[in-house]
Amino acid sequence: MNRSIYILFILLWACNSSVEHEELKNVDAAESQKSSVSMEETETVSEPDFTEMSSLKLQEYADLLMLETQHPEFKEQIRQQLLNISESNLLQTTHSDSLRVLRMRQLGDAERVSDSLERIHYTYTISADDTLLRDTLVAKIAKQYVLIDGRETISYKITFERNEPEY
User: Fold this and answer.
1) In this structure, which long-range contacts are made by residues 28-34, counting pairs with CB atoms below 8 Å and at least 24 apart in sequence?
2) Which end of the chain has the least Cβ crowding within 10 Å, N or C?
3) Rg of the chain's alpha carbons, rounded to an integer?
4) Cβ(154)–Cβ(44) under 8 Å?
5) How far apart are the first and last CA of the chain?
6) Cβ proximity of 158 and 122 under 8 Å
7) Gap between the Cα atoms of 11 and 8, Å rounded
8) CA dist list (Å): 47 to 1, 107, 140, 151
């Protein structure tokens, strides 16, 4: 008796699983069709907000500077990450406990160096402890096409250099 109930239970469970599996396949197919239509409709890709991206990258640089002062035992690794962002010393501050990018504003139009490289001049304001520091820099934005899961995607890398005045 127990054996027949057990077999009946397994058969009901197997039939229920196959019905759910078929329903899931139908739902997945419908969603796939819907997403392929929406992908075709949204093929035009707009340029990202480079000012926002540059501001976040500059904040990352400031955070690394603070981390370097708080943890000198990691100085070599942090220095390498700072050099990946900028080869010049961007933030001319004494060792501050808090650095925060408050404002970043683009100066003029972007300068297209090549198909994959743009240079944009920015002015920025940073809060360092109780003082406000204003300076300018140049963001170099490198664009690279990357293939991910069979789809071409654009990858951006932002590095900085000091904005040296022209004489």
Assistant:
1) none
2) C
3) 27
4) no
5) 98
6) no
7) 5
8) 70, 18, 15, 18
C-alpha–C-alpha distance, residues 25 and 38, integer Å: 20
The pair of three-digit structure tokens given for residue 68, joined into one six-digit string: 């370097």
pLDDT in tens, 48-81: 899 999 999 999 999 999 998 899 999 999 999 9
**The tokens 């406990």 sit on which residue?**
97
The DSSP result for 32-69, as a single string, is HHHHHHHHHHT---PPP-HHHHHHHHHHHHHHHHHHHH
Domain ranges of the chain: 1-39, 50-162
Q: Which residues pair with 111 in a beta bridge?
A: 119
The span from the CA of 51 to the CA of 62, in Å, is 16
| Global pTM value | 0.68
Query: Is residue 124 a contact partner of residue 99, using CB atoms and an 8 Å limit?
Result: no
